[in-house]
Amino acid sequence: VQLQASGGGSMQAGGSLRLSCVASGRTVSGSTMGWFRQAPGKEREFVAARSGGDVYYVDSVKGRFSITGDNLENTVYLQTNSLKPEDAAVYYCAASNRVLGSNMLSEQRLYEYWGQGTLVTVSS
Q1: Backbone angles phi, psi at 29, to 5 degrees
Q2: Residue 30 has pLDDT above 80, yes or no
C-alpha cells in the first residue's frame, strides 16, 4: 500500500489549494482516510478525515477546508480555502484499515499507512 500526496505550494493568505492523495494497493472507501499536518517546530496534528461515510475536521479548519473522495480514481482530496499563515505546514495523508470513530481520528498510531507529505506555505 502506498499513498502519494501532492498539490502543495505557496499561496498568499486568503488563497486556496487542493491537496490530493492517491492510494495504490487499497481503496479509499470503506475505511478511514485522513489528513494531518506538521508545522515547523510543532507536533503533527489531525486536520480532517473521512471515516464510515462521515467527515470530521479539527476546529481550526472547519468552514474552510473540505475533505472528499473519488472512489473511481482512488483519491482523497483536501480542499483548503481562505488559507491563513498558521495553516502553513507539511500535510500528510494517512490511511487506516479500520473505520475509526470520531474520538479516535486524531490517534496517529491507528493509521497504518502514511504518504510522504506535501508542503504548504502561506504568506501574509
Answers
A1: -95, 160
A2: no
